[in-house]
Each structure stands twice: as structure tokens, then as C-alpha cells.
Amino acid sequence: MSQLRLLTSRLGVQAARLLAPHDVQMSSWRSRSSGPRTAFPGSRDGGGSSYMEEMYVAWLENPQSVHKSWDSFFRKVNQEASCGPPQPQALSVVPESRPAASSRTKTSKLVEDHLAVQSLIRAYQIRGHHVAQLDPLGILDADLDSFVPSDLITSIDKLAFYDLREADLDKEFQLPTTTFIGGSEHTLSLREIIQRLESTYCQHIGLEFMFINDVEQCQWIRQKFETPGVMQFSSEEKRRLLARLVRSMRFEDFLARKWSSEKRFGLEGCEVMIPALKTIIDKSSEMGIENVILGMPHRGRLNVLANVIRKDLEQIFCQFDPKLEAADEGSGDVKYHLGMYHERINRVTNRNITLSLVANPSHLEAVDPVVQGKTKAEQFYRGDAQGKKVMSILVHGDAAFAGQGVVYETFHLSDLPSYTTNGTVHVVVNNQIGFTTDPRMARSSPYPTDVARVVNAPIFHVNADDPEAVIYVCSVAAEWRNTFNKDVVVDLVCYRRRGHNEMDEPMFTQPLMYKQIHKQVPVLKRYADKLIAEDTVTLQEFEEEIAKYDRICEEAYGRSKDKKILHIKHWLDSPWPGLSRILWGRADMTKKREVDWALAEYMAFGSLLKEGIHVRLSGQDVERGTFSHRHHVLHDQEVDRRTCVPMNHLWPDQAPYTVCNSSLSEYGVLGFELGYAMASPNALVLWEAQFGDFHNTAQCIIDQFISTGQAKWVRHNGIVLLLPHGMEGMGPEHSSARPERFLQMSNDDSDAYPAFSEDFEVRQLYDCNWIVVNCSTPANYFHVLRRQILLPFRKPLIIFTPKSLLRHPKAKSSFDQMISGTSFQRVIPEDGVAARAPEQVRRLIFCTGKVYYDLVKERSNQCLDDQVAITRLEQISPFPFDLIKREAEKYPGAELVWCQEEHKNMGYYDYINPRFMTILKRTRPIWYVGRDPAAAPATGNRNAHLVSLKKFLDTAFNLKAFEGKTF
């Protein structure tokens, strides 16, 4: 049987289909054969192919000795080899003579050539996608590999792989039933066979489906793509496609003109996604679907809302207006996270259709199971057990699709009885880059879509600059889902014309790609030129279509000024025009003997490397830094993949520095780095979240390993988590690193009055389960990183790192704060006018992190420098009881206030309040100043953010605010 399987794989699809159902008969036939198996002349091996020849000889003697399908096959082959078919003898009749050896050799060669052609066809069906022209830029291989499979005939020389010659190109060959390239023809020349295979499998569509273990499904896909002439479009269909491309591109252009400095995560470079989604919806509606539920990340969401869901444009444009007030309920969110529900007429099918776009946070793929659950519920309530009325579409980014484990988990729900939604159409917007991470560093699989293979979902890769190929693929995908009730993936291989967002500068890390992108002709112009050249539309008609949609946008823009809807605040990063400017800026700082946050980090790492301490920094986009502040890997602007890590060239015998962009995964990557940190105590291992609250998806690792690891397993670990944190109007998913969660899990006792001693600080650190800090100065950040290694034991370190402070002019430190004799300050006391006359101070404000700079500015504005002192907690846990006691006693007549920018039920207040009460022995109150309790960690509304900031700053410096109140 093992030999039979070898034969099956060797002889191609036809042999496989003929043999597979008859394993038992083949085995019994072989057992009846006697004598040694000797390969015929021309045989490619002495094993699998010789069985074929033995069967042929046996058939010549008795046609009933083989299966009837082989009988039919051998008759056809013999008919081509001679003027007429031989008349096989019955087993009971002894032939007068055996066929001549030369005749057998000639026939054997013909059999093998036919089987070789079948193997060739199968090779293209299996591996043709590896050489398909998928990248619109023409510079990358979608499968990350430029290797051409040896069994694909891309040159005459490769004919030899099949023992074929150039002379065979014009010979006619019988086509197997496992291909449709012949259409109504049953034979084709080898030259034509190769040409048609190249056209089907190696142009702008790459097909992965031969791993599917269902013959019917494979045949269905072959017929859809191999049949000659299937990709033909009527003039009406082409004009509709052009109109949809106009709307997709001009919408992005309009936003860019009106709000050039706003982040909107536009669709430029993949404008074809709009007609792609509309085609899936059109085709599904045609087949009876009434309700489509979509989930997607932020890129292109506004365009989808406008041109797929058909949300009123004035509603979208209104959200860009910073003067509009927030809604009465809820915190709101950034505009490219919002969802929509809309019932309308599908104009292609004239049928009602309900479209839902599920709101999604910045956690990208987190929406996947939510969409599936909503779809399942809709199917249940409609009694739609087969999914013929309700379906789901999921749009993914390439890096997230490969990197986030929830994608895999969602796929594995797809066929479970209580969870199946009877098939989902997955559309991957394959930018061929993550935020800044090259795909070669983001995944180990050839394609980002390989995870879909686990459920036998066909994967259709398509060049997004070929709109007609995209539309055809999407139409087939919708048909597949309706026919087989199974998942299908459409991989739109495209590019990202701008950076990760409109304020991002991609030339830092992808210089060659973006040089090509800047030269790339937009897909709309390409397609318009094509249709104009073939007289499908005129230039005038095309320009009128553009003018028509531009008018629609302008009129909606005018109406948007009168709308009173929820305003959604954008968030900004300052664009940085050049890398040299960054490096020269750092050089200038050193001349002034001062450092900013990024340089302090650089110096901390560099000093440890000099001392032989290995430093490893991992996470999403850490090489450059999410906020374009780090730049630890420099990229050659002319040569692809030529980079330099300067920190590995500081000292002659330094330890190695590893900085690596990670897969777009938190759960998996943080677990990996935790294990890495376990291997040696003499390494500083750091994991940075893109934004602080992105650790949400790694909560299992944090809860089960980092917080409790020492208590459960007596296992020390010195891993460092860098979590960007700060309330700056960036919306609920880009503000809070959730400090309350870490503080809640801290094990120091709030009610135990400590026994102070000379080693109190070190003893506290040894007894705690982890250390939680929020540094307000670059020098303190420098020191806490070094302290992590200099301590005689290891504890996890949680650092809430800044965003706006990275470039704040006041957030700088002098070299004098970092030289020998200096160290990490758990508390930074007031050092201004108020500290020189503490008896006159009326209020002492305690705070931590970025809010300190807001407080200092407001104190100066209100001329209260001598009446209000401000003290910073840099280490929150374990709580610095000794230093807090000292500060409170220094200002005996002052009211004590805790001020934080986080909401009252979040942040630090619930943690610090009982500890203040313990150290003060409940003799003095500490009043809370900050935002009111809330469900969301931050508002998505810019105006609401500023109003609440002003409100709590006013309260912080209102010296009569707490008169008459009791505690």
C-alpha cells in the first residue's frame, strides 16, 4: 500500500482518482502477480512507475485483470500509439506471442508522457500561486520567497523534469477529468496546456486549494478558474466597477483635502476593497442573503461606512469637527472604531439587505469572535440553520491575521455545531507590512493567510491593482460560501500609500518600498485608462463621474456643519521628516549635557551593555518606537534590508543588544519573552506594548505567570513591561495602561504600619510580587532600568511610560542627575519656592506621571507657587511609606490632595488612599482630585477631554474647595 501511495503522488491527479477508490483491488492484483518487477526502458524509477507498466502488460494479456477505468485508459493510449487499438486476449486464451519489446517501450513512453502532463497540470494547481504576479509594486514576493518550484515549467529547460523535450510541445495530449483548461476540448498541445495553466495560476490570481480533502470542492474551484473565458465582464459591469473605484478613491481624496492633519487610517493603496466588499454583498444578496454582519480593523473603516454601509456622509464629516459636543451617554470613541447598522435596497439585486458593521477597538482581531457570535444569534432568531439568510464578512490586516491568536481560535469555532455560522468570507488587506514591521520579521509562514488552511478554507490571493481579477475572485468567494457553507479567504495583495496613519512617516523603515509607492500609478487611473482605451467609457464620462461624487461630498460637508452628533476626537503624532534630524537633535542635547526620554533609555541600555549585561527589547514596532522616538535600528535609504544597530557597536567587549519588532501578538510574544527572561538573571528583557492597554490580550500571562509566578513556583523573574500611558484625548483604547489592575494585584499590605530601618527600601522590594512605577523624568527612567539589574534579586517591573512627554520641552534631565552617586528616586519632593517656606504652604498635592506637568503649569498660571507644593510618586508599589511620611510632616499646615488624571474608579486612588491613611494614622484626610468615575478608561471626545481636564485642575488649586468637609 505504501508503494501505491508513492505511485499515486508520482502519477498525478488522474492516476490518483483512478487508483484511490480501488486500493484493495490493486493490492490483490499485485499479490497475484509473480516474478520480479522490472522497470521498462524510459521508466523514471524502478518502483511506482513499474507498477504502471506491469499493469499494462497484464492488461495486454487479460483486460479483466485491471479495473475497468484502467482498461478504458489503456485502450485510449494504445489507440494513440498505433493505427487502431489492439484486441486484448482473454485470460483463458494463450496469445501466440508477446508484443515486441520495442512496441512495449514505445507504448510505455506514451503512457509516461501522458502521466507526466497530468503531473504537470497538478503541479500548477498545487504550486502555481508561488510564481503568480501578486505584488502591485513588483518588488516583493507575497510568499516571502523568490524560489520557483522545480516542477513548474517556467522555461524550456524545465521540460526535462518530466522527461519531455521541446519537440513534445506541439504534441496533443489527452486532458484528465481533473482539469477544465480545455473547455469543450478533450486534447490540447503541450504548448497550449502550459500557456493555459500559466494564464490561470501564475498571473494576478494565486490559488491555494489543493490541500482540501474533498474532490467535489476541488473540482468546483478548478471549474471556476480554469474554464477558458470565465473572467469576462460586460460593459455595464465594468462601468459599475469604475464608478465604485471613483467613490472609493475620491472619498479618501476628499478627507485628505479637508482634514490633512487628521488621522483617518485611509484606504489608499487598497481602494479596490470597496468594490470587492460590494461584490461579495451583491452576489450574496443574489443568492438570498438578507443580513450581512461585518467586522474590520480601522484601516478603511470610514470608507466602508460611507460607500458600503452607506452611512450619510454628513454624519461622518461631522465627526471631524472638534467644536461639536459629546452625546449625553457614553464616552464615545475615535471615529475609525465606530460601527453602524443600516437597512437599504441593494441596487444591483433590488432586494432588501441589512448591513451591520460591528464596532471594534484597536485590538484589531478582537472583533472576530464578536461578529461570529452576533451572526450566530441572528441566524438562530431567524430560524436560519443553514446560513442562507444571514452571513458574516471579516476584514483583516495581514500582520494581525498571522500574528493574533484569536484568529486561529475563531477559525476553530467555524465548524463546531453550536458555534458555526455556515461559512465566513475573510478579506485580508495585505499591505505587505505591519505598522513598521517587515513581514519577514512578523511571521514564519509563507503567507499571512496560512492559518486558514487548518479548516480547509480555500485561499484566493489576488493582485489588488487588477480590479477585474479582484471582482471575479470575490464573486467566486461568495458563491463558495453559499454552496459549501464553509470559510473562504480573499487575500488582497496591495500596499499602503501612506504610513500606518496619515501622520506617520514610513520612509524611516521602508525606504525602497515607499520610493516605489510614490511612483505607483493609482488603481483608478490605471483602470480608467484601460476602459477608455477599449471604448467602454469616454474620458468625458469618467471626469463627469468624478465631478458628480465630488459634488456629493461637498454638499454633505456643508450640511455637516449643522449636525449635532457625537464628535470623535482624532489623535496626533508629529510627523518627523528625516532620520538625520533625529540623530543631530540627540547630538545637540548631549552638548547641552541633557537628555530626553529616548536618549535616557539609550544611555541606560548602553551602560548595561558595557557592563556585560545582555539587553533584549521586543514588541510591536519597538525598533523605531510606536511614537517615532526610539530609532534603535537605522535603515539604509537606498539598499533594501541593509540596517545598522548602533548600540551593538559601542564598546569593544560589550554584551549583545537585541531589539526586534514582534508578531502582532501580545499573548504569545509576552509569554515568549517571559520564558526568555527565565533563562538568565544577567539579562535585561523588556516587552513593550504598542499602547499600554494592549496588554489586555496578554492578561493570562500577566495574571498566571508574572504577578503570581514567584508565589506559586518560587521562581524569580526580572521581565520589564513598558506600557505607554497617559490621558491625552486619544480615546479609550490609547490612553490607559490600566494601572489599577497591576496595583490591585500588588501584595503589600495597606493596613500594616511598616517598621522603618536602613534597609527598608530593599526589604520592601524583596517582599513584593512586582514593582510598579510611573517616572516623570528621563533620569529616573534611566535609573530604574539600571536598578532592575543592580538589585541582588529579580522582580517583574511594570513601567507606565509616557507619550506626549517623549517630546515635552520640560521633560528633560541633566547629566548631573545621572552620574555616579545618583540613583532612582521613589519620590521626587517639591524643590521650588514652596519648599523653602513649608510652613506657609496651604496645600500639598501628591501625583504621579504626566499630570505633574499640567499641575505645574496651572500653578504658575494662578500665581500659587508659594502656597501649593507638588510631590511626585515615582514608585507606586511597593508604596514608599517612609518618604510619604517625611513629605507630609514637612508641611504640617497644608491640606493633602491626591491628584490624578485617570477616572476615580481607575488609576491609583483606590490603592494610595488606604496607605496614606495608615501612614498618617487617620489624623489628616487626603482629598481626591481628578475625573469622576466612568466605565470607559477615557472619552473619545476631544472637547469632553479638555473640559474634564480644566475642571479637575481648577479644583486642584481652589484652596477653599474642601473647607467644611469631613472625612
TrEMBL record:
SMART domains: Transket_pyr. The OGDHC complex comprises multiple copies of three catalytic enzyme components, the 2-oxoglutarate dehydrogenase (OGDH/E1), the dihydrolipoamide dehydrogenase (DLST/E2) and the dihydrolipoamide dehydrogenase (DLD/E3). OGDHL/E1-like isoenzyme may replace OGDH in the OGDHC complex in the brain. The presence of either ODGH/E1 or ODGHL/E1-like isoenzyme in the complex may depend on its tissular distribution. It catalyses: N(6)-[(R)-lipoyl]-L-lysyl-[protein] + 2-oxoglutarate + H(+) = N(6)-[(R)-S(8)-succinyldihydrolipoyl]-L-lysyl-[protein] + CO2. Pfam families: 2-oxogl_dehyd_N (PF16078), E1_dh (PF00676), OxoGdeHyase_C (PF16870), Transket_pyr (PF02779). Residues 25-46, 81-107 are annotated as: Disordered. It is found in: Mitochondrion matrix. One of its GO terms (biological process) is tricarboxylic acid cycle. Its EC number is 1.2.4.2. Residues 595-808 form the Transketolase-like pyrimidine-binding domain. It comes from the Eukaryota. InterPro entries: 2-oxogl_dehyd_N, 2oxoglutarate_DH_E1, DH_E1, KGD_C_sf, ODO-1/KGD_C, THDP-binding, Transketolase-like_Pyr-bd. Belongs to the alpha-ketoglutarate dehydrogenase family. Residues 25-36 have a biased composition (Polar residues). Coiled coil: none annotated. Keywords: Calcium, Glycolysis, Magnesium, Metal-binding, Mitochondrion, Oxidoreductase, Thiamine pyrophosphate, Transit peptide. This is 2-oxoglutarate dehydrogenase-like, mitochondrial. 2-oxoglutarate dehydrogenase (E1-like) component of the 2-oxoglutarate dehydrogenase multienzyme complex (OGDHC) which mediates the decarboxylation of alpha-ketoglutarate in the tricarboxylic acid cycle. The OGDHC complex catalyzes the overall conversion of 2-oxoglutarate to succinyl-CoA and CO(2) while reducing NAD(+) to NADH. The OGDHC complex is mainly active in the mitochondrion. Involved in the inhibition of cell proliferation and in apoptosis. GO terms for cellular component: mitochondrial matrix; oxoglutarate dehydrogenase complex.
